Amino acid sequence: MKLDYYLSQFSDLKALYKLVKQDFLKKGLVHHNWHHILRDLGRVVIIGESEKANMKIVLASVLLHDIGRLYPELGSDHHEAGAIKAPEYLKKAGFRSEEVSEIAHCIRAHGPRGTEEPKTLEAKVVYDVDVLSCSVGYIGVARVFDYFMREEKMGVKDMMEIPSGKKGSRRDFYTKTGKIIGMEGLKEARRFWQELRHELEKEERIIKNIIPEYKGG
Ligand SMILES: [Fe+2]
Ligand SMILES: [Fe+2]
């Protein structure tokens, strides 16, 4: 189904879409911007339909999964900040309180750095969508560079030091569909990071041999 189909089915979802779009465009983040949300909405339609998830819940959760990034004053962990801020958007759009708590769980559990392990089917779908968007294939690698260089002002060597960030025993993918779509690309990205590390270490050794004070970079 196209996204418009779901927006026409649920007036509260349509209202939420407008509210979230407006705020993402207003804040204009470089990396976690409205286009990021659109990519994830596209993917959540594919995975959510294939896994027979509650489409209203997964679509609303994707819309709000990174909303915490627009409110850094609520704390440095955007999962928690998002779960705090999301109910305001959802109530304004007309969602019921049971839906609000289901969506808050999806926000807290999205991606390997989430503060909760995904428990519901919907949270598992949203988790996989986030992994596909940030960690898979050449695009995933390019986005990691883009984010850490532009927004965190890191160099290439600094990026090697970033811990995987997985909180607890998180899986690569939680749904069958996510795994089918993403596993090959995830392996490809991991191969890239491994080869990059080897090259950097080799370069550092060669230069240090000539200039001992060289620290790599
Ligand atoms: Fe995201
Ligand atoms: Fe996120």
Question: Could you explain how this protein is built, in words?
Answer:
With 217 residues, the protein is mainly alpha-helical. It has a single domain (3-182), classed as Hypothetical protein af1432 (Orthogonal Bundle). Helices cover 68% and strands 0% of the residues. Residues 32, 36, 65-66, 130, 133 line the site of one fe (ii) ion.
Shape field: elongated
Strand content: under 5%
The domain tally reads 1
- Secondary structure tally, helices: 10
Main sheet summary: none
- Gyration radius from CA atoms, angstroms: 19 Å
Order of helices and strands: HHHHHHHHHH
Could you state the oligomeric state of the chains shown? single chain
Supply database-style keywords.
217 residues; mainly alpha; Hypothetical protein af1432; 68% helix; 0% strand; elongated; binds fe (ii) ion
Brief summary of the model shown:
The protein contains ten helices and no strands. The protein has a single domain (3-182), classed as Hypothetical protein af1432, CATH 1.10.3210.
List the helices and strands and how they pair.
Blueprint: H1 3-9, H2 11-27, H3 34-50, H4 55-64, H5 78-93, H6 97-108, H7 121-134, H8 137-151, H9 156-160, H10 176-210
Bound molecules: fe (ii) ion (FE2) (2 copies).
